[in-house]
Specification:
- The two termini are 16 Å apart.
- This protein has helices at 3-7, 12-31, 33-71, 90-102, 105-119, 131-144, 147-166, 173-181, 186-223, 229-248, 251-276, 279-302, 313-336, 345-377, 382-389, 391-399, 405-434, 447-467, 470-474, 476-503.
- Helix 10 runs antiparallel to helix 18.
- It is mostly helical.
């Protein structure tokens, strides 16, 4: 067997245990839904109380690290060497970076999260359903979906990009471990890879499950098709086919096309709601919320329940958010690294952080602002709608208050579907890459493995929604995020070490003699 064929074989030691454990966990959540759900809730609050400060401060640290890499000499390193040329236009690159990071989450929570913060405001901020609570609600949602997560993604992505394109290592966590530790540790490589696959598949299936619920609610709103297991099954099969086809066509074709189309629709919806919603209210609360965020970004990142032990807001929101972003950071970083060739680390990180963050801030300002306006003006009791019908249905009731609501609902439903694919495509690609032996940064995982991973993701997402087991996987994020934080720290350490060598090498970061791959 030649070396290339051997390197593209299934990594059974990492892939199979991760899939088996994930399957057992999901089955347990389905059979013993209430006990498992209660246990995961207890685990969430317990870990938030004891480890929440660690997760919050680590998240704050990665924002600072990103700034250090951007303004220091590290930012001058050219990914791939001085002669490397970019493979994607700035527009396509921005579209792929945006869509691969937000998935369906922003669409689901841009209107839902602010109303929760407004009506269940943490004690550290003040009373709910007040002017201050409204500004805090929009500002906190803006922060939750912007700089924290994209700083994590950017640091991890830069680490993979330099290690793969400048040091000639494979696109794997083996390379991260070897760069950070200074030597190859086979058992640790396998353990980390298995853990990452487990985290990635569980987290992605959970996010896809939320997308399926929203698609079901959208079909009911637009076409009066009742939500049911059969509707979710048809949606899951259809969308799995779409994102698997996109995935097997490669990053340069499938994802580029889907993400570009998705971005155009995002922009259309953003302007539509801004113009036909209450523009005056949206403009004012967005402006004040951005100012509040600038004044309180540290508090937004680290707020807890000191001297208010009964307040669990921090555990339900920021600790769980930061933990979920930590889960995704190394794997999204691995995916984004493939877009970095020919760019300086400074440009690479600025694009990965600023463009999606600013877009998310504007999106939440517009959609969240309209939601708060409807609640405070009495035009729609959004909180009652959320409590009665669930967030996935309340979103479409909010859209129903706008002109041409039926058309906008259909367009929004299309956006959810495309966003579903832009999340699942890169996650399936990374999971497939991790499940085979070492690949170079430019190599695609075998199509067969991408199809297998895609089908597992689609089937798992449907099973979670149809059985109600989705809450058990959601509760897993904090536990898994705590474990995954070690991998994220390894990425930062590897970036520092390899970046330092690149900064002081004669040709500033590229070795003509490619280093030997690790065994």
């Amino acid at each position: 067997m030649n070396k290339l064929t051997e390197d593209r074989r299934l990594n059974k030691a990492a892939f199979l245990p991760a899939i088996i454990i994930l399957g057992l966990f999901i089955i347990a959540g389905i059979i013993w839904k209430e006990p498992v759900g209660n246990f995961m809730t207890m685990l969430l609050y317990g870990m938030a109380d004891y480890f929440g400060a660690y997760i919050n401060l680590l998240s704050l640290t990665f924002i600072i690290l990103a700034v250090v890499f951007i303004i220091s000499r590290y930012g001058d390193i050219v990914i791939g060497g001085p002669d490397a040329k970019p493979e994607y236009s700035m527009f396509n690159w921005c579209c792929m970076s945006l869509c691969s990071g937000i998935g369906t989450g922003l669409l689901f929570w841009a209107m839902g999260e602010p109303i929760f913060h407004f009506m269940t405001t943490p004690s550290a901020i003040g009373e709910p359903n007040t002017r201050r609570a409204g500004i805090f609600a929009i500002s906190q949602a803006m922060w939750n979906w912007s700089f924290v997560q994209y700083s994590m993604y950017a640091v991890c992505a830069a680490a993979f990009a330099i290690i793969c394109y400048n040091k000639g290592k494979s696109l794997s966590f083996n390379s991260i471990v070897q760069a950070a530790a200074g030597k190859n540790i086979p058992w640790l490589n396998t353990l980390i890879t298995a853990t990452v696959i487990f985290c990635l598949m569980g987290g992605t299936a959970n996010s896809m499950g939320v997308g399926l619920m929203q698609i079901g609610a959208g079909l009911e709103s637009a076409f009066n098709i009742p939500q049911s297991a059969a509707v979710w099954l048809i949606a899951a099969i259809s969308i799995t086919v779409i994102f698997v086809l996109s995935c097997v066509s490669g990053i340069g074709r499938g994802l580029k096309m889907v993400s570009s189309a998705c971005t155009y629709i995002f922009i259309f919806l953003l302007f539509y709601v801004f113009i036909f919603g209450n523009t005056e209210f949206i403009t004012k609360i967005t402006s004040e919320s951005i100012g509040f965020m600038i004044d309180n970004w540290g508090t937004h990142t680290t707020i807890m329940n000191a001297m208010s032990p009964d307040d669990k807001w921090f555990a339900d929101w920021i600790v769980q958010y930061w933990a979920s972003f930590i889960v995704y950071a190394p794997v999204i970083g691995m995916f984004l690294a493939r877009m970095g060739r020919g760019r300086t680390v400074r440009t690479f990180m600025l694009v990965q952080i600023l463009f999606p963050s600013l877009f998310c801030i504007l999106w939440i300002g517009v959609f969240g602002g309209q939601t708060i306006y409807l609640q405070t003006s009495g035009n729609l009791d959004v909180w009652q709608a959320v409590s009665t019908y669930g967030m996935q249905s309340a979103v479409f009731q909010i859209l129903g208050t706008l002109p041409m609501s039926k058309l906008i609902t259909i367009i929004f439903l299309l956006t959810v579907t495309l966003s579903f694919c832009t999340l699942a495509d890169p996650m399936a690609s990374v999971a497939a890459t991790l499940s085979v032996k070492s690949l170079s940064a430019d190599a695609e995982a075998p199509k067969k493995q991408k199809i297998i991973v895609g089908c597992i993701l689609g089937a798992t997402a449907y099973t979670l929604v149809a059985t109600g087991g989705i809450n058990s996987v959601k509760g897993m994020f904090t536990l898994v995020g705590l474990l995954q934080s070690a991998v994220m720290i390894l990425c930062a350490a590897a970036l520092f070490k390899c970046g330092k060598k690149c900064c002081f090498s004669p040709n500033f970061g590229f070795s003509d003699k490619i280093e030997e791959k690790e065994e």
